[in-house]
């Protein structure tokens, strides 16, 4: 599963090691054989843009894109469970899945970090890797749509992952949903998320209700979790994770 391993590395934080081996990654994608020349073109274009970009600029862009707000987070469960208690159990279950495959996490990243999950899938048999991609295809498609809305080249990597999954989704539904969302990475949105609630006493229930209404209006249209129901339809015979 060399192709998944390469995409995993390109989705990780840009560092000197990655920038020093971009040429090797570009050559490896052609040798992997999982993608047609037409499908490889956007991947090669992405790598070429990376080669022409200063590393510090790439790092700043990465942090601004993936580390601010929930909309483009690379933590998969952020888009499924948000901050609910179910997220903790999902983490435990995913860690058990890693361990059952004989793998242990040796980095500081959470188990649902997308590049880490892709690296895990790359170590599995083609059928298992394809099933794993199919499971997260709705999240990948949503992220791709949001990245295209922000005119980010990273969208090409998500499009490739969706192609490898063999899943077809309703692009129009995604486009409409993303168009209705408010950006959650603006200074105002970030301040609202981290805003501390005031201490309230029992007699302040009326004020509390008014503040709650204001809070709901402020976040109307903002990004929320629970995105797995996106009319995903597996397309027979289109999965191509075979390298």
From TrEMBL:
TM region positions: none
Organism of provenance: Enterobacillus tribolii
Protein name, UniProt field: Respiratory nitrate reductase chaperone NarJ
Pfam families reported for this sequence: Nitrate_red_del
Keywords associated with the record: Nitrate assimilation
NCBIfam families: narJ
Entry superkingdom: Bacteria
InterPro entries documented for this protein: DMSO/NO3_reduct_chaperone (IPR020945), NO3_reductase_chaperone_NarJ (IPR003765), TorD-like_sf (IPR036411)
GO biological process, one term: chaperone-mediated protein complex assembly
SUPFAM superfamilies, A to Z: TorD-like (SSF89155)
GO molecular-function terms, A-Z: metallochaperone activity; unfolded protein binding
